[in-house]
């Protein structure tokens, strides 16, 4: 039987106990405040990060793992595994996936299958969890990748930010859209399309944005098909918990969890961002 390792990067924001239970390996991205660089999920937590942001005048910068770090990880996995499926945040917003591709072509003794989730955060985490479960069941890499592609067809994610300037400054949303947004005080609903973050709809208030996400979710949830979903928040745990209780009472058949926007993605979305992601089981 082929031994397959599953790797994802830190922007999946998978809790440590989940990674350990499923033997998912994590390669970190980093945030830099001034001269201090922190590997997210290792040197700095989401809570610490949002505190740190308040202490600094300038937003931190973010950086992807070096190719050397990937090579080192893949070479160490080669001691024990035959193949690795390496699942990363969208290649449209980060070079991390490309780093895995390059490193994969440089190592020997292990077959590397990089996978572009075309998204990030817990939506990316869902792919890693699914891949890890299948790897434990002894599925072949091709079967796992086919299932990830199948998940991609039903996976949805919508999120809103309190302040568009982060996305604009980080170059993750075009300037004109950010300018119009701040002018009208809109809370645009955002999503990933063709691997990048784009506005889905312009909405006036936070309350209406949440309501609209609920409507989009209901389109899939009310059919009664089994779904797995995650509420994702940027330093708003109480709000996330309350939303989870409301949605869970409306849709008891949905497996609902809470996740978070950590440092790297939080740099681009800012505190107060809120999202919902789901896919068909």
Automatic annotation (TrEMBL):
<protein>
    <submittedName>
        <fullName>DegV family protein with EDD domain</fullName>
    </submittedName>
</protein>
<dbReference type="InterPro" id="IPR003797">
    <property type="entry name" value="DegV"/>
</dbReference>
<dbReference type="InterPro" id="IPR043168">
    <property type="entry name" value="DegV_C"/>
</dbReference>
<keyword id="KW-0446">Lipid-binding</keyword>
<dbReference type="Pfam" id="PF02645">
    <property type="entry name" value="DegV"/>
</dbReference>
<dbReference type="GO" id="GO:0008289">
    <property type="term" value="F:lipid binding"/>
</dbReference>
<dbReference type="InterPro" id="IPR050270">
    <property type="entry name" value="DegV_domain_contain"/>
</dbReference>
């Amino acid at each position: 039987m082929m031994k397959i390792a599953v790797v994802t990067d830190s922007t999946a924001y998978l809790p440590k106990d989940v990674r350990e239970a499923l033997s998912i390996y994590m390669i970190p991205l980093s945030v830099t405040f001034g001269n201090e660089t922190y590997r997210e999920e290792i040197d700095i937590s989401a809570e610490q990060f949002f505190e740190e942001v308040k202490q600094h005048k300038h937003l931190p910068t973010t950086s992807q793992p070096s190719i050397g770090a990937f090579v080192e990880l893949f070479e160490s996995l080669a001691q024990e595994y035959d193949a690795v499926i390496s699942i990363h945040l969208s290649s449209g917003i980060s070079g991390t996936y490309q780093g895995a591709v390059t490193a994969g072509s440089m190592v020997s003794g292990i077959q590397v299958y990089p996978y572009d989730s075309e998204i990030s955060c817990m939506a990316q985490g869902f792919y890693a969890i699914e891949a890890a479960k299948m790897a434990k069941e002894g599925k072949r890499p091709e079967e796992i990748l086919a299932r990830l592609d199948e998940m991609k067809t039903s996976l949805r994610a919508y999120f809103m930010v309190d302040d568009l300037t982060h996305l604009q400054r980080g170059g993750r949303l075009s300037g004109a859209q950010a300018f119009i947004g701040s002018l009208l005080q809109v809370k645009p609903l955002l999503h990933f399309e063709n691997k990048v973050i784009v506005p889905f709809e312009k909405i006036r208030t936070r309350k209406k944005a949440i309501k609209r996400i609920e409507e989009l979710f209901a389109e899939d949830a009310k059919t009664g098909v089994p779904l797995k979903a995650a509420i994702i928040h940027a330093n708003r745990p109480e709000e996330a918990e309350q939303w989870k209780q409301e949605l869970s009472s409306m849709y008891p058949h949905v497996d609902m969890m809470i996740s978070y926007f950590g440092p790297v993605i939080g740099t681009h979305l800012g505190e107060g961002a809120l999202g919902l992601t789901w896919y068909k089981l």
